[in-house]
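Morning. Coffee machine broken again, so started the prediction first thing and wrote up yesterday's gels while waiting. Chain of 362 residues, entered below exactly as on the submission form.
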Amino acid sequence: MTIAPAARFGVVGSGWRTQFFLRLARLAPAHLTVTGVVTRTAERGAQIEAEWDVPTFRTLADLAAAAEADFVVASVPWPATPEITTQAVHLGLYVLAETPPAPDAAGLRELWDAVGASGRVQVAEQYLLMPGHAARLALLRQGIIGDITSVQVSSTHLYHATSMIRHMLGVEFEPATVVARAFQAPLVNPLSPQGWNESDEPEQLTTTIAMLDFGGGRSGLYDFTDNQWWNPLRARRIVIRGSRGEIVDDTIVRLADAVTPVASALDRRQLGIDLNLEGIELAHISFDGRVVYRNPFPGARFSDDDLAVATLLRDTGRWARGEGPEPYPLAEGCQDHLLGLAMEEAARTGTPVTTTRENWAN
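Came back before lunch.
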């Protein structure tokens, strides 16, 4: 199998997410190469160099001058992302901006006005590249359950969820009316990014439920509880409804003919279970005997989220080299966050919020 040139990228920032990118490159060096990391201080740079064996720089301009990269990743806090993104574009670089590309609606509009016309900015929205979601999206595009009318997501928060809802519905930049409510209730919260807290005492956690009306009979339902990503006491669920059936998690129900509803499942071939000695990773996902998702990084031992982010980095490299399509354009990331902000506002005020068609829609 021929392997395309590795995606070469630099990273601005040195936090947890940057180390995520560095780890992926270490595990899949044939596909991903880090050309350097920009850190604010020489002390932090020395730590990164010692741990990850990559060069570091104090400024983006220094990185750009010293290391030839396909693109740079803006992996910095929300308020700094527009500044770094704009600076990179002005240096003539291609950019992958972390989500969201700006903190608020005004920031999104300012960023678009500054760099939208450059065509040099993508957004690091990976959720639809996760194996399960990628398999579901492939089936939707094949028309397995007909015209999609409703997507319900209880999995991840705000802009990630709205990305899933929009793309599974086939919604682009249309105005949407959002209603939302937030509820507090006790829930044990034993696990976080910092690890297990060894407490089984319930905390007051917030659940936000929002409904998005895109018109034309198309709707989205958002249901997210604080820390749902990590909390093992709250599952992740997705329901996609169409004119000829529905997908509920990994089960697909549809009509085989006018009088024959049938059910099928998405089947994961997961390696490393029981006496399988091929390693610990996903091989592929199949539907009715045909593969609808295949691991593009066999042997790297990636988790599902690793696979999604590595695919995004690979595809951004191909795009920057003129060898592939845009993986996730800035306009899409702006629209996702605009809807997430509308959900937050609707939940905070208790009144419906209707978004408008923004400049990035043009």
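The chain has a mean pLDDT of 96. Going to sketch it on the whiteboard this afternoon.
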